[in-house]
């Protein structure tokens, strides 16, 4: 089930709660409200386009002040903008829901907060990505602040969804491999033998009017050695790797012109690590020879 559908069903369940349950919720959330110092008076406002990351989650109105103590839309927009890059990495499928439940809480009779289990799951997956960009998990999102129970808060992934998520190979923060511009076909064959996978990809830098940019793949990903990579997820995985390891992506894609690379690496304990990077240049024949010989090569 897609994340936004799960969130929508959760909200529908909350709407159907009995009045006695709502009273219990109000009592439970009183402590949380004081903890975030949001005050006693809140109002419902439409989620504006400036908060694009919190749209299409199953509700259209949010409460202000929110659970982070922000009192105006410009303030919320400024603070959520800091999380856009992290969300683009796909570090956890519930990261957006978790953050929006705090920055743009749904407009019910009281605040619906994330469960501690959801916070911990998102933190454990996303904190390493923040660390890769020299940032730490903020104290304002300390998971101990959230309730441990699942009945009065937004729960974590269902077991089926969690198992499916855990099966997908995930890119990790790593040091940038040396980008090889000069090599022999024997060196490339050796890399194919020594690594669990090797793929040929065309990479480019996409620029936006806002001045931001992102690194993406163009066309299909060609498998030289598939290994444990999943065909339907590999393109997305590579783009996530580029976003997480932006320093490496910046070295590989220095301008808006598309560039072709062979990435060779391993999957260890579900983590994708790129070990060798070959720049495939138009007039170079070594990689062409290597990929042709690989079909009959014995390591």
Give a written overview of the molecule.
By secondary structure, this protein is of the alpha/beta class. It has two domains: 3-167, Frizzled cysteine-rich domain; 170-294, OB fold (Dihydrolipoamide Acetyltransferase, E2P). 39% of the residues lie in helices and 19% in strands. It has helices spanning 3-15, 19-36, 73-81, 84-88, 95-103, 116-132, 159-167, 185-194, 234-244, 246-252, 286-294; strands at residues 43-46, 61-64, 170-171, 179-180, 197-207, 213-225, 259-268, 271-280. Strands 3, 4, 5, 6, 7 and 8 form a six-stranded mixed β-sheet that branches. The chain has a two-stranded antiparallel sheet with strand order 1-2. α8 (185-194) crosses α11 (286-294). The longest helix is centred in the N-terminal third of the chain and has 18 residues, at 19-36. The protein is elongated. It starts with a helix and ends in a 5-residue tail after the last helix. Mean pLDDT is 84; it is low at 12-40.
Number of helical regions = 11
Biggest sheet layout:
6 strands, mixed
Instruction: Assign the structural class, choosing from mainly alpha, mainly beta, alpha/beta, alpha+beta, or little secondary structure.
Output: alpha/beta
Shape: elongated
- Runs in which pLDDT lies below 50 for 5 or more consecutive residues are 12-40
Let me know the number of strands: 8
Following the backbone from N to C, one meets helices and strands in this order, namely HHEEHHHHHEEHEEHHEEH
Residue-averaged pLDDT: 84
Q: Tell me the helix content.
A: 25-40%
- SS strand fraction: 15-25%
Protein name: Secreted frizzled-related protein 2
Membrane topology: Multi-pass membrane protein
Main location: membrane
Keywords: Developmental protein, Differentiation, Disulfide bond, G-protein coupled receptor, Receptor, Secreted, Signal, Transducer, Wnt signaling pathway
């Amino acid at each position: 089930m897609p994340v936004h559908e799960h969130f929508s069903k959760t909200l529908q369940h909350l709407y159907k709660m009995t009045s006695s349950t709502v009273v219990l919720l109000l009592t439970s959330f009183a402590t949380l409200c004081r903890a975030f110092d949001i005050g006693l008076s809140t109002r419902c406002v439409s989620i504006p386009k400036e908060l694009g990351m919190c749209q299409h989650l199953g509700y259209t109105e949010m409460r202000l002040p929110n659970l982070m103590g922000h009192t105006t839309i410009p303030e919320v927009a400024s603070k959520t903008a800091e999380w856009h890059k992290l969300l683009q990495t796909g570090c956890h499928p519930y990261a957006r829901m978790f953050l929006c439940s705090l920055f743009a809480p749904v407009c019910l009779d009281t605040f619906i907060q994330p469960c501690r289990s959801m916070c911990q799951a998102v933190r454990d997956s996303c904190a390493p990505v923040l660390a890769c960009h020299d940032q730490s998990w903020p104290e304002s999102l300390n998971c101990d602040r959230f309730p441990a129970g699942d009945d009065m808060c937004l729960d974590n992934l269902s077991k089926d969804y969690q198992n499916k998520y855990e099966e997908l190979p995930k890119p990790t923060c790593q040091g940038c491999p040396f980008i090889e511009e000069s090599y022999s076909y024997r060196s490339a064959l050796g890399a194919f033998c020594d690594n669990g996978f090797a793929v040929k990809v065309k990479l480019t830098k996409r620029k936006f009017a806002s001045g931001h940019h992102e690194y993406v793949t163009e066309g299909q990903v060609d498998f030289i050695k598939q290994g444990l990579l999943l065909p339907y997820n590999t393109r997305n995985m590579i783009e996530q790797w580029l976003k997480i390891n932006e320093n490496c992506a910046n070295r590989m894609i220095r301008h808006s012109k598309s560039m072709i690379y062979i990435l060779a690496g391993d999957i260890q304990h579900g983590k994708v690590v790129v070990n060798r990077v070959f720049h495939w240049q138009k007039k170079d024949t070594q990689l062409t020879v290597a990929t042709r010989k690989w079909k009959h090569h014995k390591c």
